[in-house]
Amino acid sequence: MKSAGPVLTVLIAILALWYAGAVWMNAQWVRDQAERAGQTVTWEQIVPQTMNQSRPVLPAPHQVAVELWKAVVVTPPTSKRSLIYHAWVTLSATLLGFAIGTGAGILLAAGIVHNRAMDMSVMPWAIASQTIPILAVAPMIIVVLNSIGITGLVPKAIISAYLSFFPVVVGMVKGFRSPDAMQLDLLKTYSASRMQAFWKLRLPSSMPYLFASLKVGAAAALVGTIVGELPTGAVAGLGARLLSGSYYGQTVQIWAALFVAAALAAGLVIVIGMVQRVTLRRMGMLR
Amino acid sequence: MTWLILAALVWAGGWGLNVALSRSALAATRGGRLLVPAIFGAVILFVWEAVVRGLNVPGVILPPPTAIAERLVENVPLFWQDFQQTFLKGALGGYAIGCSAAILTAIAIDRSPFLQRGLLPVGNFVAALPIVGIAPILVMWFGFDWQSKAAVVVVMVYFPVLVNTVAGLAAADAMQRDLMATWSASYGQSLLKLRLPAAMPFIFNGLKIATTLALIGAIVAEFFGSPIKGMGFRISTEVGKLSLDMVWAEITVAALAGSAFYGLVAAVEKAVTFWHPSQRG
């Protein structure tokens, strides 16, 4: 709790900077309006007018807060104007993809640890794939699956599965290899089979690595889903909100969608962190 | 049908070869470690080609690798133009600005534990957020050209590099700092001669993470609006025209650019942090 003070200070500083930025960036519009009306405006007149424009260059924080309140609390979640609705569309695709990607990643990692040929063939590619912008394939996957009649949740889930897959593979291979030679030798002296060694030693000791890669994977999966929602022509989801906001110059809407996306990402990471703490404590790995 | 049988045979043969290679003495050598994944990659490409031909998969769903390679060779000037626009201007420009800003910020807040305690949790939090989402806003602010892409890249790379640099500046241990103090080294001297060098492995970790983010940021930002060139523009328009061979060719270019960029930063890291245990092998 001793960092609460500093963090609060930084957050207040960010808020102050944001307000200053809103005044500075929106002032031009006020001046243009005044010039058209043949008036001159002073700073005292400009500042209040920068706070509540309908299409500001940078919306003031309270405008975003009001929009968030309207779109999250006031509007019923079934409405297409509700951000809860859009957030759910994005979250469900993310979770499905994340589950598929993580499951497949753990399976492949288990295969890599137990099969030397697989290790040597696949592992360099899995590592190299982390240096390339995989996200660029998202529009293609969406359009191709659309053209063969698969729409809705599944194409987006495939993208987020793909994005969360590689971090999990790389992390879990490290995790399954984390028990040291002494421990593996001990199991050998017990004449444990490879399966027993996997379930009783490798899997439990990979848990810290699993949670670290789950956090990376969850963030990647969310980004994947949001980008996957862009080329569908802005139907539903947070990505669609971003895109339609940018088409129609609705900056307040973009910022509100961004905040919901940030909250989703933070929520996912926090939930994984909580599961991590409970699991590791029960396993006695956390003091 | 013959194509499918051929694909199955090549797959089985390649896999058998890799199993044999990985058990042989060659597996311990450098050449063997390169050969096995190369064989695997080549087999995957061949199976892809053969299955697409054997099942007559239409080109609008999955083009064969040969068609992609053909497009790539035919349109070299076009891809070079896209590469310049997206990579050299957008990604590289933003990467340079964002990383140097982050490193300078880290050095600036280094003297204030208060700011560190405040900025680090915030930085860690922001690093996990879907920052590409700010792309539409920055495209509105900075226009359609590469400046807006560079701005997205700046924001994307800033926080990972900041967090890593701050961690790195704390890496020199108390004994070493005390030694510098006994030599009555000034703050600047101890920063330049001890703490920055000690921070290099951490800084490069951040820089390497940032290479991928930079390219992703530049490409995704182009989905929100761009002049009629650039990798992201090419991908989204060619997807719209259903000419997937062009899309795959552009993705190949992006993958090569990404790996080369990462490799370059890793090579610089090797030269700078030659003293670190992880580099001495």
How does this model look, in words?
The complex is a heterodimer of chains A (287) and B (281). Chain A is mainly α and 287 residues long. Chain A folds into two domains: 4-56; 83-282, MetI-like (MetI-like fold), CATH 1.10.3720. Chain A has helices at residues 4-36, 43-50, 61-74, 83-114, 116-128, 138-147, 153-176, 181-189, 194-205, 207-228, 238-248, 251-282. Chain A is elongated and about 90 Å long. The two termini of chain A are 18 Å apart. By secondary structure, chain B is an all-alpha fold. Chain B has two domains: 2-57; 72-280, MetI-like (MetI-like fold), CATH 1.10.3720.10. Helices cover 81% and strands 0% of the residues of chain B. The longest helix of chain B has 36 residues, at 187-222. At the A-B interface, α1, α5, α6, α10 and α11 of A face α1, α2, α5, α6 and α9 of B.
Write the layout of secondary structure elements.
The complex is a heterodimer of chains A (287) and B (281).
Chain A: H1 4-36, H2 43-50, H3 61-74, H4 83-114, H5 116-128, H6 138-147, H7 153-176, H8 181-189, H9 194-205, H10 207-228, H11 238-248, H12 251-282
Helix pairs in contact in A: 1-2, 3-12, 4-5, 4-7, 4-10, 4-11, 6-7, 7-10, 10-12, 11-12
Chain B: H1 2-23, H2 30-54, H3 65-74, H4 76-110, H5 113-127, H6 135-142, H7 146-169, H8 174-182, H9 187-222, H10 231-240, H11 244-272, H12 277-280
Helix pairs in contact in B: 1-2, 3-11, 4-7, 4-9, 5-7, 6-7, 7-9, 9-11, 10-11
